[in-house]
């Protein structure tokens, strides 16, 4: 108990000190000339603006969080066993349950591969996991990482919290009236619907699974091309998770604590946090999704009325209670702009078609309207890419949220076509409301080239029965720029007027070494260039034609010359009569002089 009381006493002083230090550290690390206001926010104009972080589009819906601060002692080395109550609690607070720690580290590894420029540290996930759920309630998870019991935040009914009406029909939180933050990383259902990931490879995206939730949190923090090694981007990412300066400072405190070192503890042995951001005076906050217990030593519920004395005791009876005056119901909350939206309409979006790897010239425009067709401003429109595609919005995300302007129109970020061709859709919907949305058909076409030229001018020749020493090299362009990853077909044709495949002359070899005269599946490199496989010649001499065709219709014809093989000199026939002039037997003999 002494350790507990001491910890509570230091919290009031430590909170201010740690918060001030965190804000000061961020301010000092900003670009020269950057300033921070009295809420710890960087002033407008000092940096690029962060995306809107309204409650219905943050990860948690700005739900309550734990405000406990790290222990004063260093987290490493691990406190030894048997060090007393204070040491045991410190060890539990400093340590991270084994499965939970493994989930954070695996999420960091996955993001290092998928989004290396984000520089996500697993300690940031640990800091957020501590503040959101106390590391999944001290690591109370099954072997696959699923929480033993669901972790739910309070319903977001506008009563002291954000107002977010049900978006998932209770599928994740069991609540069909209002949304509640779910799982160890406390995602609200509307955010999990697009941010959810499968972190443990079981084919499901479960917000109650720490592997899934940690990977989803990592991707959420890494969107918008944020680099979390940069203090400004780190701050934006944390505030987008829960838009509170105190939340930012608390997460930064745990982040620095875990960066100094931590240790693994068995699942289920972690310390449960005690203080919540929504705690009221005189009420002990509980873990998310539970009912706050009565304070020790005090009865729960209303205070009982004093009992009247027994007849004949001479003690006065309690005065009769006066019925309370009728209460006036509180005024109804005025509707928000989002509440007035009846439907969405297309706002003049043109044809959405782009070549693979290119940026779409057309951007999606959507208009929010009332039932009477009046424009509604200041409404958040969520654009979600749906279907089997690797096309994304700028920044590599499949979801973008934009606020409507004075004319009720929201314009989505430009789409960046991936490499998968075909049609898919982008769905426009009102964030936090279930109203009629607008689907947009999008098409990605294959990469094409409009010109194809040969690289080099050396004649391509070989001897019949031999092989060509020089390879055929070409370059594809589109609009004068290098056309990379464009499909090319190479075919040895009969003649310029006859595109049929030639049955003699030069040829390529397939994987089995057999002669083939048509190659498909070729693609230019990033620089638009392509080097064809080696060419061989059969015994036929002459001039032959190689025709190359790209997707998009660009063509090039290359001449190939096969020279006749050299004819060797014939050997003399030994059976033929020898030339008499060379026969030594017919030569006259020389007579010696007398």
UniProtKB/TrEMBL annotation:
Keywords from the UniProt entry: Signal
InterPro entries linked to this entry: Lysozyme-like_dom_sf (IPR023346), MltB-like (IPR043426), SLT_2 (IPR031304)
Every Transglycosylase SLT domain range: 181-231
Signal peptide as annotated in the record: 1-33
Biased composition (Pro residues): 317-337, 567-577
Region Disordered, annotated ranges: 28-91, 265-344, 562-594
Amino acid composition bias (Low complexity), ranges on this chain: 44-61, 297-316, 578-594
Signal as UniProt keyword: yes
Pfam families: SLT_2
Transmembrane spans: none
Domain of life: Bacteria
PANTHER family, sorted: LYTIC MUREIN TRANSGLYCOSYLASE (PTHR30163:SF8), MEMBRANE-BOUND LYTIC MUREIN TRANSGLYCOSYLASE B (PTHR30163)
Protein name: Lytic transglycosylase domain-containing protein
Protein source organism: Streptomyces erythrogriseus
Lineage: Bacteria, Bacillati, Actinomycetota, Actinomycetes, Kitasatosporales
């Amino acid at each position: 108990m002494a350790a507990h009381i001491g910890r509570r006493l230091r919290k009031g002083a430590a909170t201010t000190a740690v918060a001030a230090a965190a804000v000061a550290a961020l301010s000092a690390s900003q670009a020269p000339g950057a300033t921070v206001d009295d809420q710890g926010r960087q002033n407008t104009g000092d940096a690029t603006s962060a995306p809107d972080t309204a409650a219905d589009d943050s990860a948690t819906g700005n739900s309550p969080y734990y405000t406990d601060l790290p222990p004063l002692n260093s987290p490493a080395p691990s406190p030894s066993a048997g060090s007393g109550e204070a040491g045991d609690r410190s060890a539990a607070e400093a340590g991270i349950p084994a499965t939970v720690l493994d989930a954070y580290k695996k999420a960091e590894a996955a993001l290092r591969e998928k989004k290396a420029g984000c520089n996500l540290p697993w300690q940031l996930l640990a800091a957020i996991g501590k503040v959101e759920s106390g590391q999944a309630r001290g690591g109370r998870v099954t072997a696959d990482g699923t929480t033993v019991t669901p972790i739910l935040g309070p319903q977001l009914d506008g009563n002291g919290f954000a107002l977010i009406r049900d978006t998932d029909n209770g599928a994740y939180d069991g609540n069909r009236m209002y949304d509640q933050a779910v799982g160890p990383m406390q995602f609200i259902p509307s955010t999990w619907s697009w941010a959810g990931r499968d972190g443990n490879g079981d084919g499901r995206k479960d917000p109650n699974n720490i592997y899934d939730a940690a990977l989803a949190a990592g991707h959420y923090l890494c969107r918008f091309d944020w680099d979390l090694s940069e203090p400004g981007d780190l701050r934006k990412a944390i505030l987008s998770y829960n838009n509170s300066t105190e939340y930012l400072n608390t997460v930064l405190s745990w982040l620095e604590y875990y960066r100094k070192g931590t240790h693994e503890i068995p699942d289920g042995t972690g310390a449960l946090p005690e203080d919540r951001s929504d705690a009221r005076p005189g009420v002990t906050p509980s873990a998310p999704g539970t009912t706050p217990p009565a304070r020790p030593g005090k009865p729960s519920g209303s205070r009982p009325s004093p009992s009247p004395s027994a007849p004949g005791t001479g003690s006065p009876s309690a005065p009769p209670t006066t019925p309370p005056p009728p209460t006036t119901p509180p005024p109804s909350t005025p509707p928000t702009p989002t509440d007035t939206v009846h439907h969405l309409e297309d706002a003049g979006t043109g044809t959405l078609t782009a070549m693979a790897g290119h940026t779409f010239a057309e951007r999606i425009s959507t208009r929010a309207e009332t039932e009477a067709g009046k424009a509604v401003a200041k409404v958040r429109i969520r654009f979600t890419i749906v279907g089997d595609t690797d096309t994304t919005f700028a920044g590599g995300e499949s979801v973008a949220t934009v606020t409507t302007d004075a004319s009720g129109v929201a314009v989505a970020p430009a789409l960046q076509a991936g490499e998968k061709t075909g049609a898919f859709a982008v769905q426009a919907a009102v964030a936090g409301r279930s109203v009629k949305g607008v689907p947009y058909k999008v098409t990605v076409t294959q990469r094409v080239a409009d010109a194809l030229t040969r690289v080099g001018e050396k004649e391509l020749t070989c001897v019949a029965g031999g092989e060509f020493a020089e390879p055929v090299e070409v370059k594809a362009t589109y609009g004068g720029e290098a056309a990379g990853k464009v499909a090319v077909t190479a075919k040895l044709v009969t003649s310029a007027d006859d595109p049929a495949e030639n049955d003699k002359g030069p040829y390529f070899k397939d994987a089995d070494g057999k002669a083939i005269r048509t190659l498909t599946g070729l693609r230019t490199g990033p620089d638009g260039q392509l080097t064809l496989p080696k060419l061989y010649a059969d015994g036929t001499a002459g001039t032959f034609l190689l025709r190359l065709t790209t997707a998009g219709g660009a063509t090039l014809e290359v001449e190939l010359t096969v020279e006749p093989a050299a004819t060797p000199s014939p050997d003399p026939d030994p059976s033929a009569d020898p030339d008499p002039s060379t026969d030594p037997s017919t030569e006259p003999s020389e007579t010696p002089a007398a």
